[in-house]
Design brief:
Organism: Leersia perrieri
Protein name: RNase H type-1 domain-containing protein
CATH architecture of the largest domain: 2-Layer Sandwich
InterPro entries: RNase_H-like_dom_plant, RNase_H-like_EbsB-rel
Strand content: 15-25%
Number of domains: 2
Oligomer: single chain
Radius of gyration: 28 Å
CATH superfamily of the largest domain: Ribonuclease H-like superfamily/Ribonuclease H
CATH topology of the largest domain: Nucleotidyltransferase, domain 5
């Protein structure tokens, strides 16, 4: 408001005023600063480190991963079904991005478990973006 009032007074007294766009930008910045002061960021509480845990009794853990090479538009997926099955699978694939490779690895881990007759599976991936989807 002060910037707009100053422009008004300068025009009224025939002085060179700020350009209106500059005054509006200044007012917008001040409003944003005031909003940030009224809504401070909450401190993040550190989460305890998570470690690998053995799956529950009668469950099998399937770890998956995928890699992508943008130059060749190809990548690789792998999955490990364990601890009792100890089977490892790895495939070279064509894809569009790393997220797609990680998703393919999860799919292949699930299919591998079905092929081996494992119904209770804990599927693990290191891709937060995929988990949130």
């Amino acid at each position: 408001m002060w910037a707009l009032w100053t422009i008004r007074n300068k025009r009224r007294h025939r002085e060179a005023p700020w350009p209106v766009q500059k005054a509006v930008e200044w007012a917008k910045n001040v409003a944003f600063d005031l909003w940030q002061l009224a809504h401070p960021l909450k401190e993040k509480v550190p989460t305890p480190a998570q470690f690998w845990a053995r799956p529950p009794q009668d469950w099998c853990k399937c770890n998956t991963d995928g890699a992508f090479f943008p130059d060749s538009k190809s990548g690789a997926t792998c999955c490990y079904l364990g601890p009792s099955r100890n089977f490892y699978g790895c495939k070279i694939k064509v894809g569009t991005d790393a997220l797609m490779m990680k998703a393919m690895a999860c799919r292949e881990g699930h299919l591998l478990a079905l092929q081996l007759g494992v119904s209770n599976v804990c599927l693990e991936t290191d891709c937060q973006e995929l988990i949130v989807l």
